[in-house]
Amino acid sequence: MINNFVFEPDMAAKKITVTREFNAPVEKVWKAWTEAELLDKWVGPKPFKAVTRMMDFTVGGIWLYAMIGPDGQQFWVYAKFTAIENGRAFSSVGMACDGDGNPLPDSPKSYRDTKFSPIDGNRTKVGMVITFEDESTIKMFVEGGFKEGSAMSLDQLDELLALE
Amino acid sequence: MRRDVFQAIADPTRRAILTLLVVQAMTPNALAEHFDSTRQAVSKHIKILTECEVVTHKQTGREIYYHVNPEKMKEIDIWLERFRKMWEDRFDQLDNLLNEL
Predict the structure, then answer these.
(1) CATH architecture label of B5-100
(2) A100 in helix, strand or coil?
(3) What are the φ/ψ torsions at residue B64 (nearest 5 degrees)?
(4) For position A18, which CATH number holds?
(5) Neighbour-count burial for B72-82, b at 16+ CB within 10 Å, e otherwise
(6) Do B98 and A3 touch (CB under 8 A)?
(7) Domain annotation covers residue A1
(8) What is the ipTM of this complex?
(9) Residue A136 forms contact with B (CB below 8 Å)
(10) Which of the four, A101, A123, B36, B49, has the lowest number of CB atoms within 10 Å?
(11) Residue in B66, B22, B70, B24 with CA at minimum distance from that of residue B46
(12) What would the pLDDT profile of A82-104 be if each residue is shown by its tens digit?
C-alpha cells in the first residue's frame, strides 16, 4: 500500500513538514490521534511505551503522558490544545514536564498543526507541521545524542519526540 | 555560550556565509565583499562559525582561507534522519492499529 510518506525539514524556518496517508476513513484516523487509549498504542516509538495520565481534548485542555523506556526511565510530556476543528484539524503546543505536569524550567516549546483530509477510496491524508521554538529543542538531542553515544541518543530522541 | 551546529545555522548571515564557503574556500576579505554589513559584523559571524566547528581556516601564504567542515554539518542530517525514522515507525504502528479498529 502506497502511503506517500513525506518528511520535509526547513531548518532555516525551524520547521518540519510531515505528511502521510492512511488506509482508513478520517473518522477512524481522527479517533486514533485524539483518544488517549488509542494514542497510547502507537505514539511510543519502540522500545518506549506511551502512557497517558490525563487527556482533555478541548481547546485549552491538556494531554499529560509519559514515554516509558524498557529500563523504566520516564519522559513526561505536557501538551496543550490550542485549536480544534472537529474531524479536520487541531493544534497543540508541547513541552517537557514532571510527572505532575509542571513544565521543566527552560523546556523549549514546540508547536504542531495537524490536518486531516479524506482522499479517494476511504483513505485519509494527515499533514503535520512541527515548529520548534528555537534550536535548543534540537540541541538537547544533539548534546545528549552525539556526545554520549547511541544508547543515550535514543533516550534523548524520545525526550525530543515527546516535545512535539 | 552554546556552540553547536544548530547555533551555526540559526542566523541568516551565517547561513549565507556557509553557502558561499560550500562552493569554495574564501579569505575574510573576499567573504566580507558579499555582505552589506561591516567587516567586523561579518568576522563576528565567522568567529561563531569557527567556534561551532562548522568552519575551519587554513593559512596559505599570507592569506587565511575559510573552509566548511563537512563532518560537522552532517550532524544535522543525522538528527533529521533519526527523527524521520521515528515518525515512520510510529506511523507503521498506527497502520496496524487502524487495521484493528
Answers:
(1) Orthogonal Bundle (1.10)
(2) coil
(3) -100, 130
(4) 3.30.530.20
(5) bbebbeebeeb
(6) no
(7) no
(8) 0.81
(9) yes
(10) B36
(11) B66
(12) 999 999 999 999 988 888 889 88
